[in-house]
Amino acid sequence: MYEFIQHVINGLAVGTIYALVALGYTMVYGVLKLINFAHGDVMMVGVYVGYAVAFLLGRDAMGSLGSALLVFAVSMGTCAVIGFVIERFAYRPLRDKSRLTALITAIGISFALSYGFQLDLKVNAFGSEWTVLPGAASRRFPELIRPQEWLVLGDSDVIIWNWQVISFGIALFLLAGLQVLVYRTRFGKAMRAVSHDHRVAALLGIPVDTVIAVTFMLGSALAAGAGLLYAIKDKTIQPLMGVMVGLKAFVAAVIGGIGNLPGAVVGALLLGMCEEFIVGYTASSWRDAVAFGFLIVVLLFRPEGLFGRVQAEKV
Amino acid sequence: MRVSVLAACAALCVLGLACEKKTTPTEPVKPAEPTPTAGKDVKPAEPKPAAEDTILLGEVGSLTGSEAAFGVSTRNGIELAIDEANAAGGVKGKKLAVRVYDDQSKPEEAAAATTRLITQDKVVAILGEVASSNSLAMAPIAQEAKVPMVSPSSTNPKVTEVGDYIFRVCFIDPFQGFVMAKYAHEDLKFKTVAILTDKKSAYSEGLTEVFQRKFSEMGGKIVGVEAYSKGDTDFRAQLTNIKKLKPQGLYVPGYYQDVAIIAEQARELGLKVTMMGGDGWDSEKLFELGGSAVEGSYVSNHYSADDPTPRVQDFIKKYQARFGAVPDSLAALGYDAARVVIEAMTRAPDLSGPALREAIAATKDFPGVAGTITLDEKRNPVKPAVVLAVEGGKFKYKATVAP
Predict the structure, then answer these.
(1) Which of A107, A118, A234 is the closest to B261 by Cβ?
(2) Minimal Cα–Cα distance from B366 to chain A, Å?
(3) Long-range Cβ contact pairs of B315-320 (< 8 A, separation 24 or more)
(4) What ipTM was predicted for this assembly?
(5) B166-168 and B149-151 strand pairing
(6) For chain A, which has fewer Cβ within 10 Å, the N-terminal or C-terminal residue?
(7) Residue A309 pLDDT grade (very low, low, confident, very high; cuts 50, 70, 90)
(8) A127: exposed, middle or buried (C-beta count within 10 Å: 0-12, 13-18, 19+)?
């Protein structure tokens, strides 16, 4: 029984991270009909930005609320800017070209980021050496939240840590915030309009370019948040960390019905749980096979995803 | 429908990526990137044939990617050996040079680099790789071309079984698995042990198989075997299962990067168990990534920096002066491998593949840093192993186990 509870906790932790990343995929797909394959790598960049901030703050500052907030804010902010730049210079010029062109560009950006970050680039400035690109080696992510046992079940049969609870809280907060933004604000309305039909939206005076740019920024910021939660969970970071998470989140988004926000969350939680139980009760080699097999099955029987409707209002 | 078409496109693209990755070996392999752990840069390897008065050796190593720390240590050891030989006048009146290619810790890249060393650079011998999976990708190519290949630290038996041109200077997995099984049974007095193995790694699977067999033969009980795949970062599901079995020891014959995360997550799940491993743990990175979670673990290894033998201490001193770090066993084995080849070259009548092969095969009582090397008829050395414990963020010498 305890081990079942532990599996559920593990699965939830993975699922919430997939969910935050999947939302970025689904939002961008909603407004642009583009699968942004660089999304997982933007997440990785966010993690490294967070790492740099934590590093500059120093070991003593770790564990305080202020420094954690600063790490999250700077990382998410930087990623929003990166998302903006990618959209403006890589995707916008291709918006009228075929979709495949944009898709290949996205893959190119993904490679540029994940392999670019494997380079080792240091520059001397202001009297000391600065690491510009981190290099391929794994690094240990600083402890943003000082680990403490939050709840212990049985004879330490199940231990729930404070950072697991806080991470879950942050994920829920970000999800709720996004929901309010999309369904309760003027901007959200504009976003939904663009996703519905961007030509008509433009005719009605909605600044389509701005809406798309902001959507990209939002998605990238969410990815950065997800990346930090991932780094807090697994503690080790490296430049290729975004690739698999990105793919899994994409699968989650398609399972839930790409373009559909709640669908992405449900798909992600389902996928996270599913992976955990597969590894827990069968064999670990099945993990990825099942994840991608799941995708194929969904596409065969429900091509629009679990929550997607062909005429659905897409965001 | 649109969605499915797009997703299918996406899936195709992903497949395309996978294919593209496979074709990259035809492109020039990048020269080694300096990594933070290395004190020194590698000269960029321009593909031009060796000058008349130099003998060119080839090296394939994981200078980037998941086992980067191994590749860098090995390269440092080899570099030290080559420079020493050159300072002593070289071989047959010629200077030695080594051309290094990075394989990004991937077998397919290692194979491509080997082909390139043989066909383009025309090296007389090849040093590498560390990981058995990579060496296994390289060995058939070297064997085919009749170029001797000496692996410094691939412990999987299959590596030298590829053919009579493939050698190594480290002990093999059956021995390493036996050493840990014996230590767990006799010194740690464990009755129940669980295993967490890397399914994707020939090395890890080899150690697991032998440990499992030997430990059972000695009267111990293997309560469970769980598996992961290299590159995973979440081992909680497997560890949760292991926790339920309540073993006294957990044998994790993986590489340092995965091991560090596994140790961390085991502690997180409240799994209080003594971890044991092999030489794959041997890297300073283990302590950086694993922190206090790896404390109290035991590993089998090739050599210990605490060894008071003069030739070991002498090597450590030279290595420290040059690279500013205590050499790990990978550095020691890289150094040994290069010196075995250099010594064979001085004995060989000429430097053709078959002549050099004969000379290497005849290596006897060679005073290596990581034990005296005598190659047997299967081109494997016979030598003892040491057991080290992780104490205070360092490896401490515990015992020597002879074959």
Answers:
(1) A234
(2) 34
(3) B315/B369, B318/B80, B318/B84, B319/B76, B319/B77, B319/B80
(4) 0.80
(5) parallel
(6) N
(7) low
(8) exposed
* B358 has pLDDT over 80: yes
pTM flag (> 0.80): no
Question: Is residue A18 over pLDDT 80?
Answer: yes
What is the average pLDDT score of chain B? 84
- Residues from chain A that touch B291, judged by Cβ atoms under 8 A, are 140
Given a cut of 70, whether residue B14 has pLDDT beyond it is no
Greatest alpha-carbon span in chain B: 73
Q: Helices A208-234 and A241-256 meet at what angle, rounded to 10? A: 120
Rounded to whole angstroms, the maximal C-alpha distance in chain A is 65
Q: Considering only residues 224 to 243 of chain B, which have any Cβ-Cβ distance to chain A shorter than 8 Å?
A: 226-229, 231-234, 236-238, 240-241, 243
CA angle A212, A217, A223 (to 5 degrees): 125
CB atoms within 10 A of CB A74: 18
CA distance A56 to A246: 28
More confident residue, B201 or A210: A210
pLDDT, tens digit, for every residue of B112-130? 999 999 999 999 999 989 9
Q: What is the DSSP letter of B375?
A: B
Within 81-120 of A, beta carbons closer than 8 Å to B belong to 99-100, 103-104, 107, 118-120
Find the range with the poorest average confidence among A197-211, A283-297, B68-82. Answer: A283-297
Chain B residues 55-84 with CB within 8 Å of chain A? 64-66, 68-69
Instruction: Give the pair of three-digit tokens for residue B393.
Output: 């963020």
How far is B388 from B377, CA to CA, in rounded Å?
30
Beta bridge partners of B367: B372
Which 3 state secondary structure label does DSSP give B274?
strand
Listing DSSP states for chain A in one string gives -HHHHHHHHHHHHHHHHHHHHHHHHHHHHHHH----TTHHHHHHHHHHHHHHHHHHH-GGGTT-HHHHHHHHHHHHHHHHHHHHHHIIIIIGGGTTS-HHHHHHHHHHHHHHHHHHTTSEEEEEETTEEEEEEE-SS-EEPP-SS---EEEEETTTTEEEEHHHHHHHHHHHHHHHHHHHHHHHSHHHHHHHHHHH-HHHHHHTT--HHHHHHHHHHHHHHHHHHHHHHHHHHH-EE-TTHHHHHHHHHHHHHHHH-TT-HHHHHHHHHHHHHHHHHHHHHS-TTHHHHHHHHHHHHHHHH-TT-SS--TTPPP-
- The answer to whether B233 contacts A304, with C-beta atoms less than 8 Å apart, is no
Amino acid, single-letter form, for residue A129: E
